[in-house]
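CATEGORY: protein folding

GOAL: derive structure tokens
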Amino acid sequence: MNMGRITFYEDRNFMGRSWDCMGDCPDMHSYMSRCHSCRVHSGCFMVYDQANYMGNAYFMRRGEYGDYMNMFGWNSWIRSCRMIPMYRGNYRMRIYERDNFGGQMYEFMDDCDNCMDRYRMNGCWSCNVMDGHWLMYEHANYRGRMWYFGPGEYRSFRQMGWGNMHFMSMRRIMDSWY
């Protein structure tokens, strides 16, 4: 089993109090009052600027993030994190033009940098991840806000609290990233 480890620091450049995390944490407030830098020792994580895996999200893999707020353009610090399990195998996801798996369906087994160019699709409003772990982005070429999708059915991005969010590009989280 793959174990991830991320260390959060109160201040920029790995200064101040620190806290080690080796899994999911829905609310970091009980461990530290602020977080301005972090170091991913192993594994991959999604970090969020609100508790309970809400708000802006960013994918982190092994590396040092001495001033992530400036790097990501955030004006708030990390308040929750989720470890992404390592996956080796085939990748498969179906995306749909409408909520509740409606409209045209397309199946992906590899990265797609632009749904509009590849399929003349105006966006993705629901999906079913059959295999693997994926990052989906609001704009083409893996830009803009991102979200993590593990295996499961996602019937309505709107009902998940993402408003009018739809996705225009997606990529697999590969085992080589760990």
In short: Residues 97 and 124 are 5 Å apart (CA to CA).
